[in-house]
Known about the structure:
Layout: E1 3-7, H1 16-29, E2 34-38, H2 44-48, H3 61-65, E3 76-77, E4 83-86, H4 91-99, H5 108-114, E5 122-126, H6 133-141, E6 144-150, H7 159-172, E7 178-187, H8 192-205, E8 209-215, H9 218-225, H10 230-233, H11 238-264
Helix pairs in contact: 1-11, 5-6
The structure holds adenosine-5'-triphosphate and magnesium ion.
Amino acid sequence: MGRVIAVTNQKGGVGKTTTTVNLAAALAVAERKTLILDLDPQGNASSALGVSKEAFAEKNLYHAIIGLVPMSQIIQPTEIDSLFVAPSNNDLTGAEIELVSSFARENKLKAALAEIRNQYDYIFIDCPPSLGLLTVNALTASDSFLVPLQCEYFALEGLSQLLNTVGLIRQNLNPALQDEGIVLTMYDGRNNLANEVVREVRTHFGSKVFETIIPRNVRLSECSSFGKPILLYDIDSKGSVAYLSLAKELIARTMSSQQRTTTSGSPEVNTN
Ligand SMILES: Nc1ncnc2c1ncn2[C@@H]1O[C@H](COP(=O)(O)OP(=O)(O)OP(=O)(O)O)[C@@H](O)[C@H]1O
Ligand SMILES: [Mg+2]
């Protein structure tokens, strides 16, 4: 059964999309069949994978969420064989509003995913920078959530609000939602403050923080504007090496969590 991971942080510009796209690409290259759901009306993940938002104006994630088109029909291939994307565009802004009055509104994405979730090893959901209904749908549909944190002052700002939301989701909608961990992003070693943030986050969250730290690397910001994951743009760059290492860590974590599931009979539920 594929692992569905929501990449979320309501803070804008912290590296959610960059992490989703490049981590997913690294897993696909390691022969894990991987799907990205672009759940942000900005459609940045679609663009970063070279998928034109305009070309799928009639068949995108919006149409799957509101049940107009099956999820299997909106999924598009990418330049990497095992990597697929469910594209989005600004239509999703409408979904957020339309869903408000609909029945079982928090479960729409979960229901749309049911048909295909067994066909992938990993499914990443690139969340928008808010804790609105789209993010609630993502957390309800997911096995776990992954939080990118930018290595700068105020990095932890808003995190308690996110964890509160996760608590409510666990209580009301998805009791099995696991904590996949925190990824530190845009790290600049020359900056003392960045080192302080790393220390603080590690002290606070311990083994929940991935060992791999994503450096600030201009190649990572360039590659998205060329519609390519870093692996296809500059495989030797520091950014590329970091996301490959993050993928390795995630695979190891997934394997140990699956082992725990097999031995205990039920997934570990983190109640933090
Ligand atoms: N490690 C990095 N090094 C350099 N630039 C980066 C890095 N990670 C992300 N960026 C750049 O920072 C900006 C924000 O990153 P990204 O779009 O991934 O954040 P986001 O959290 O998805 O933003 P939003 O909240 O708007 O969805 C982008 O221009 C991206 O190219
Ligand atoms: Mg984004």
